[in-house]
Design brief:
The protein is an all-alpha fold. The chain has helices spanning 2-24, 30-40, 45-56, 71-108, 112-117. The protein has a single domain (2-117), classed as MetI-like fold (Orthogonal Bundle), CATH 1.10.3720.10. The protein is built from five helices and no strands. Helix 1 runs parallel beside helix 4 (71-108).
């Protein structure tokens, strides 16, 4: 339970701001980021597991940290799996709310950054 809750908390720390920024601001490549987030939601757990294993194995770049087969490795893998889901869902919600309340935000003079944090 500790591993999963920690992974979800970390994914929310990364995914909520990322999704809010992508949903609220217009920038070049925004559509590509949205497509990438949606595509990463379907990331196979086996691929993530093998990638984390290769990174954390003794011959991998993070091997000296000796994290393989530890709860930290499981937290890392679960965070990688959950972050795109949190970010993509947050992006969609913020984008929908922004479209619904854009006129009201403009009428009361709420700036772009305040729209995300409100």
């Amino acid at each position: 339970m500790r591993v999963t809750l920690t992974a979800v908390a970390l994914a929310c720390l990364i995914g909520l701001p990322l999704g809010a920024l992508v949903g609220a601001f217009r920038f070049p490549g925004r559509a590509a980021v949205a497509v990438l987030l949606n595509a990463l939601m379907g990331l196979p757990p086996v691929v993530v597991g093998l990638t984390v294993y290769l990174m954390l194995s003794a011959s991998g770049p993070l091997g000296p940290l000796r994290l393989l087969y530890t709860p930290a490795a499981m937290i890392l893998a679960q965070t990688i799996l959950v972050t795109p889901i949190v970010a993509a869902l947050t992006r969609q919600v913020v984008e929908d709310l922004h479209a619904e309340y854009a006129e009201q935000f403009a009428s009361i003079g709420v700036g772009p950054l305040a729209r995300v944090s409100a």
